[in-house]
Amino acid sequence: MARWGMVIDLQRCIGCWACNVACKQEHFLPPGMLWNRVLVGESGIYPNVRKEMVPVLCNHCEDAACVRVCPTGASTRRDDGLVLVDYEKCMGCGYCLVACPYQHRSFYRSNQDKGYFPDQGYTEFELLGRELHPFTKGTVLKCTFCQERIDRGIEKGLEPGVDRDATPACVNICVPKARVFGDLDGPDSPIARLIQEKSGKAFHPEFGTEPSVYYITG
Description:
about 25% helix; 3-stranded mixed beta sheet; alpha+beta; 9 strands
């Protein structure tokens, strides 16, 4: 069984926000909700200042705090490493929101259900989104590593991280190829070699959650 993960090369990221837009479009996310974010800051002292871009998303942790605290079993971790939410079981208690040390979960509030143009009604794009991704108000939503693309791709014999139709949208759209997706446990997989060769590290290892998203910083 593969264990899916991602590597983000911060030396390649140009802060274009394409990953942000692709994710929002892929999942028809409501107003005010982002599963992919890009944190922007600066380092150095004037005039030697450098802009820093750090894309962040759910880390799909091996020892996920959100899964441990969920009282209904809505938050689960699959054998392939994907941490997902069963919206039918989620009661919106917010325990997982508090427990996630990375703050990568979002609560779907009732006022977000009005659409992007409340006075004009839903657009055709929004109506399609409600059909394909019928999110439930009052539940917690998060990045899924594009679970539906992975599952459908594998059924067709495709390889996630190699074949576009089986790979997360944010990876496909990344212009400078800063994102790499694949099997973390595969001895010959590109992502496993990349982590080893480039000394990829997860953020805040002291949290003890064993994230599946790694970063290359130099």
